[in-house]
Hints:
The chain has about 190 residues and is mostly helical. It has helices spanning about 1-35, 40-55, 55-60, 65-85, 90-95, 115-135, 140-150, 155-160, 165-185. The chain is about 75% helix and about 0% strand.
Amino acid sequence: MAGILDIWRHGRRRDALVRVLRPAMPALYRLAYRLTGQEADAEDLLQDLVVRLYDRADEIARLDRPEIWLSRVLYRLYLDDRRRRGRRPVPVGELAANDDDADPVADHPDDPGLAPEALHERGALGERLTRALARLPEAQRIAVILHDVEGYRLAEIAAITGAAEGTVKSRLHRARRELRGLLSDGTL
């Protein structure tokens, strides 16, 4: 009888976790990919997230905005993984430079209304921006990814990264200034 209750409890827990994670999964995958720079590492990071959250499914379901909390846990898992492995992620700019590695989270479908020249310019600017972003210090790069790419507000980024809101604002300001400089000097 105890085995049946355990199975029921696990099934209920799994269903609760799926209900919370399903709508958040695309954003969590984009964030994981942007942090790691590789599909396989992003998938591993998400798998670690799900495994760690399995026992907390009911608690997560009660949160008002679980996506912020989930992003914070994902970010902390990313930092823990980097510390444990003692390595840096593949810079995102190197991925964009390789034609074989298309960005699986890019939201840039070709607009049939644009002329081929405009499409080419848009792609070239995107590649330059990706290379410039990869040159930023990690804290600044993460601030830009969370704010400008993923659309989080400053307070949400502070909650995710554990930094003060003023620090996030400063990192974002410095990152944008650095990006403007990198993009304007023409070396990328």
